[in-house]
Design brief:
Elements (H helix, E strand, L loop, with lengths): L31 H22 L2 E2 L10 E3 L6 E3 L6 H4 L6 E5 L5 H9 L4 E2 L8 H10 L8 E5 L7 H5 L9 E6 L2 H19 L27 H5 L7 E2 H9 L15 E5 L8 H14 L12 H10 L15 H20 L7 E3 L2 H9 L5 H6 L1
Parallel strand pairs: 4-6, 4-7, 5-6, 7-9, 9-10
Antiparallel strand pairs: 1-8, 2-3
Length: about 375
């Protein structure tokens, strides 16, 4: 059996239909405009009926040419692919993209992949097509054949960015990292504190206790730790009516929508990168290498400059938090509650899709089940 194969799922998780060219409506004996308007209204009503009358939404039944279907009580929407500009059309096909989540080892991945002899990608994270294209152009003469990539960790939340790449190549392989929500929140918050001091910002740094509900500081928020909410947008499995409503109303910072794409997704947890278990780490590295279709081996060593940079990232400031302190217990409680829901959906639905690739599935599942537990409780034992 193919090492990337997984159990089959319902036909609703098959690749999305290809997008048609710009839609035009024929004229029917002088009544073309009336018929066209009526047709659009009927189609929109049918689409809305499918969303709210059926218990399960078949992702294939979403017509990508319908445009936007908005939820009446939310600014969120369920959209078809957005129009792709001339800049995107002129790009070479990207072979892979690291699309999320922030603070899950994506920066380290960028450094390792960026120095691979078969890979060309921007030296820093970017979501701009022009910068990705420039990196591709700069190393076109590489031997062996170059594979082009990019890192845009916000893409998993902003699917409008992701959809720009769909018309370019259905073969672009996506990489997504996740992490225990409690540890993710602490890491992201402290990272923002560090950047705040490095850039000399003058805004007031909010307490972590304030970053609940729809509140966020530089994209740090308790609600953003619900990784499953954003993974649902990739439409790799059927979505129930309840799941759809929860996705649309989870928070208002990012507009949510289903974005059915045929691309493969390699999902990992940062625990698989840990040096604590060399055998597990090497298996993950080998599987990622195979997934990206590379020949030459990775170089996972760090230069002195990279080691120095890593030490700098561990610098502490007055606002740096230790989330295990008792005053943050309410945040940990909410993050573990969310972690329980997120891990359950990822394990039971997301990774069952034939489009989703997991290295060492048994360990991956066990690591995600720990999201329901407070990691600080282990430290106090």
């Amino acid at each position: 059996m193919d090492m990337w194969s997984s159990s089959s799922i319902s036909a609703s998780a098959t690749a999305a239909p290809k997008r048609a060219s710009a839609t035009s409506f024929p004229s029917y004996y002088g009544y073309g405009i009336k018929i066209t308007s009526l047709t659009i209204i009927v189609l929109v009503l049918m689409c809305l009926g499918a969303f709210y009358q059926n218990d399960t939404i078949n992702v294939v039944s979403i017509n990508n040419n319908m445009g936007t279907v908005k939820d009446a009580s939310s600014s969120s929407s369920v959209d078809g692919p957005m129009a792709v500009g001339k800049e995107a059309k002129n790009m070479k096909a990207a072979d892979f993209g690291i699309i999320g989540f922030p603070k899950t080892g994506t920066s380290f991945l960028l450094k390792v992949l960026g120095k691979h002899p078969e890979i060309s990608m921007p030296a820093r994270e970017t979501c701009k097509n022009s910068e990705i294209d420039a990196a591709q152009q700069s190393k076109d003469e590489r031997t062996p054949a170059t594979r082009y990539g990019f890192k845009c960790p916000t893409m998993i939340r902003s699917t409008a960015l992701l959809e720009q790449f769909v018309p370019i190549s259905n073969e672009t392989r996506l990489v997504v990292g996740v992490r225990h929500p409690v540890l993710w929140f602490q890491s992201f918050y402290n990272f923002r504190v560090q950047r705040y001091h490095e850039t000399g910002s003058v805004e007031q740094i909010p307490s972590p206790l304030e970053l609940t509900g729809d509140n966020n500081w530089r994209h740090v928020s308790v609600k953003y730790a619900r990784f499953d909410i954003y993974l649902k947008q990739l439409a790799k499995t059927s979505v129930t009516d309840k799941e759809m409503k929860e996705m649309l109303h989870h928070e208002t910072m990012w507009k949510k929508r289903l974005s059915p794409i045929p691309n493969k997704v390699f999902i990992y947890t940062i625990d698989q990168m840990s040096p604590r278990n060399e055998t597990r780490k090497m298996k993950w590295q080998k599987d990622l290498h195979t997934y990206l279709q590379l020949k030459a081996p990775f170089d996972w060593s760090m230069t002195e400059e990279e080691r120095s940079s890593k030490k700098k990232e561990k610098a502490t400031f007055n606002e740096t938090i230790n989330i295990c302190e008792e005053k943050y217990s309410t945040i940990r409680s909410e993050l573990t509650r969310q972690g329980r829901e997120a891990s359950k959906w990822i394990i039971e639905k997301f990774i069952t899709s034939p489009d989703v690739v997991v290295s060492d599935a048994l360990f991956f599942k066990s690591a995600l089940r720990e999201w329901a537990n407070d990691p600080c409780a282990k430290e106090s034992d």
